[in-house]
Amino acid sequence: MLSSPLTTDRSRLMQRVNVVLLVLNVIGAIGYVARASLSWAIPQEHGVVPITGEPLVWAVAVLPIFAVFLLLNLAWGAMILGYRQWRRGRLWLLAVLIWVAAVAIDFMHH
């Protein structure tokens, strides 16, 4: 079965959108780690009781980034499900792994 030029153009556009969304997720994860690093424990202060404002600093710095990308990725996942683009779901899963790694890096430093 031959595909029409319109289908091919749409497929290319969707592929570009998926790659752009993956790149945005990489940038967002780097921004998340950079902002989260503001509240990381200093190794020389191991065992010292943390300042009570550190969780607030973490939340104010990180939660807006995390919330924006959570909504973006939920919409991206819904788009993949809606158009039944299962192969493009691999990039979405890669974005999920990138965020899991970013959160793991953050939590290793608390």
**H/E element string?**
HHH
**Major sheet, described briefly?**
none
Tally the beta strands.
0
Uncertain segments: none
Rounded to the nearest angstrom, the distance between the terminal CA atoms is 56 Å
**Global Rg:** 19 Å
Query: Roughly what fraction of the amino acids lie in strands?
Result: under 5%
Structural class of the helix and strand makeup?
mainly alpha
Helix content: over 70%
Q: What is the averaged pLDDT score?
A: 87
Number of helices: 3
Total separate domains: 1
Backbone shape: elongated
Describe the protein in words.
- The chain is elongated, with a radius of gyration of 19 Å.
- The protein contains 3 helices and no strands.
- The protein has 110 residues and is mainly alpha-helical.
- It has one domain (5-108).
- It is 75% helix and 0% strand.
- The longest helix is centred in the N-terminal third of the chain and has 32 residues, at 5-36.
Strand-helix topology:
Layout: H1 5-36, H2 54-83, H3 89-108
Label this structure with key terms:
mainly alpha, 3 helices, elongated, 110 residues
Please provide a brief summary of the model.
This protein is mainly alpha-helical. Helix content is 75%, strand content 0%.
